Amino acid sequence: MRGFLLLAVALLAALFLGGCVTFQVTNVSEVGSRMLIRPPDTTRGHTKFINAADSESTFSTHGGSFTITTLPDEEYRRLLLEVREQIGQRLFEEAAALTGAEVAQLVERMTQLTENLEALGREGASCGGSVTDFGSVTGVLSWDDVAQKWVLTCSVQNEDLLGD
């Protein structure tokens, strides 16, 4: 029993001395999104899927630099790759039977799919900054219908433990 009590006291002391930081990301869009939350205490980060109108939380053992980023939807990416492959296979197998206009249309679709795949890899929303020990970070993810892209805003609440 005494060992358990000492362990509990040691864990509480580590929590208070370490400067725990909380991270909460809320998705206010109508579509779910995969997110990468990279707090100060890890280089790999935490990948979380956040459903529409939902939120996810994580924490860090101390303050420092952080980033939060949207990640491409792998299912959508696989679908684009599959469709592009089917079009390429059709071009190869039916080349002799296709008209010039049909070939041009299929090539145009393949080009559009390739551009969409490239955009998935580079166009994501991201925010970052620095947070102090015992602070908190709130991220809000939304979809901009006009620009057709994710928007991610972060706000940081730094705790002033000295009361300055």
Would you mind describing this structure in some detail?
This protein is of the alpha+beta class. The protein is 37% helix and 35% strand. It is built from 3 helices and 8 strands. It has helices spanning 2-18, 74-93, 100-122, and strands at residues 21-27, 33-38, 46-50, 54-60, 64-71, 126-131, 136-144, 149-157. Strands 4-1-7-8 form a 4-stranded mixed sheet, with no helix packed on it. Strands 3-2-5-6 form a 4-stranded antiparallel sheet, with no helix packed on it. Strand 2 and strand 3 form a beta hairpin. The longest helix has 23 residues, at 100-122. The model has no long low-confidence stretch (mean pLDDT 83).
Question: What's the quick description here?
Answer:
The protein has helices at 2-18, 74-93, 100-122, and strands spanning 21-27, 33-38, 46-50, 54-60, 64-71, 126-131, 136-144, 149-157.
